[in-house]
């Protein structure tokens, strides 16, 4: 499966804002965006100065890229999610964000079982997560209300999971999820409402980009 393998800090610098792709490190002075808050590359500073003259197309493109990078998906997959959103009833942009939030790796992250989505994706890929008592290794699985996500019993002896409940306790769980730290599990209660999803994303710009 294709995946992004370069520095994720470059992605934040390219979008001109923190995307919090490295978890807690993004809140420390070690964050690359704090030290170099301009686009990567030889002409990064000059590129930043040209941002004030961006076209509508480029603004739409940057918003689409920003959403892709936050959720850690490649273009082909993101386009497929958009096509799924078009077929659903309701607002296409909101449908798209609900689909992205319903991905298994994102739910694992939202439950506080991983420091970031990349780590959540790795946990799923390595077979540590079950959905409705079935082992799965597909991070892109789109969950539905009622699905139960849990750490496999066989994985709980792993050093990473032994103090996971204590680490996860500090993570705020969104209202559309229910978490059981004692059993290292969680349930998807419903689809998230728009106000419960990242407010820095303008889904209408993404819709406009794909509707050209």
Would you mind describing this structure in some detail?
By secondary structure, the chain is α+β, with helices and mostly antiparallel strands. Among the domains are: 1-53, Ribosomal Protein S4 Delta 41, Chain A, domain 1 (Orthogonal Bundle), CATH 1.10.1050.10; 103-188, RNA-binding S4 domain (Structural Genomics Hypothetical 15.5 Kd Protein In mrcA-pckA Intergenic Region, Chain A, Roll). Helices cover 42% and strands 8% of the residues. The chain is built from 11 helices and 5 strands, in the order ααααααααβββααββα. A 5-stranded antiparallel β-sheet has the order 2-1-3-5-4. A hairpin with a 2-residue loop joins β1 and β2 (134-136). The two termini are 29 Å apart. The model has no long low-confidence stretch (mean pLDDT 86).
Short structural description:
By secondary structure, the protein is an alpha+beta fold.
Give me the Rg, rounded: 18 Å
Helix content: 40-55%
Count of DSSP H/I helices? 11
Q: Estimate the global geometry from the Cα principal axes.
A: globular
Q: Give the termini separation.
A: 29 Å
- Quick one: CATH class of one domain? Alpha Beta
The main pleated sheet reads as:
5 strands, antiparallel
Which parts are unreliable, with pLDDT below 50 for 5 consecutive residues or more?
none
CATH topology of one domain: Structural Genomics Hypothetical 15.5 Kd Protein In mrcA-pckA Intergenic Region, Chain A
Fraction in beta strands: 5-15%
The class by helix and strand makeup works out as: alpha+beta
Q: What's the number of extended β-strand segments? A: 5
CATH homologous superfamily annotation of one domain: RNA-binding S4 domain
Strand arrangement, major sheet: 2-1-3-5-4
Q: Indicate the CATH architecture of one domain.
A: Roll
Mean pLDDT: 86
Give the ordered list of helices and strands.
HHHHHHHHEEEHHEEH
């Amino acid at each position: 499966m294709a995946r992004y393998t370069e520095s994720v800090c470059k992605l934040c610098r390219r979008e001109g804002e923190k995307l919090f792709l490295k978890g807690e490190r993004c809140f420390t002075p070690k964050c690359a965006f704090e030290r170099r808050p301009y686009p990567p590359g030889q002409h990064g500073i000059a590129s930043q100065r040209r941002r004030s003259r961006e076209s509508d197309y480029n603004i739409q493109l940057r918003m689409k890229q920003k959403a892709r990078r936050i959720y850690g998906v490649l273009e082909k997959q993101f386009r497929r999610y958009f096509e799924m959103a078009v077929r659903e009833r309701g607002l296409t942009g909101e449908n798209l964000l609900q689909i992205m939030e319903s991905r298994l790796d994102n739910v694992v992250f939202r439950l506080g079982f991983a420091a970031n989505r990349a780590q959540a994706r790795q946990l799923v890929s390595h077979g540590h997560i079950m959905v409705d008592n079935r082992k799965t290794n597909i991070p892109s699985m789109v969950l539905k209300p009622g699905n139960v996500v849990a750490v496999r019993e066989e994985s709980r002896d792993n050093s990473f999971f032994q103090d996971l409940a204590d680490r996860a306790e500090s993570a705020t769980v969104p209202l559309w999820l229910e978490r059981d730290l004692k059993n290292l599990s969680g349930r998807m209660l419903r689809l998230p409402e728009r106000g419960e999803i990242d407010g820095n994303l303008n889904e209408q710009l993404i819709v406009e980009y794909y509707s050209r």
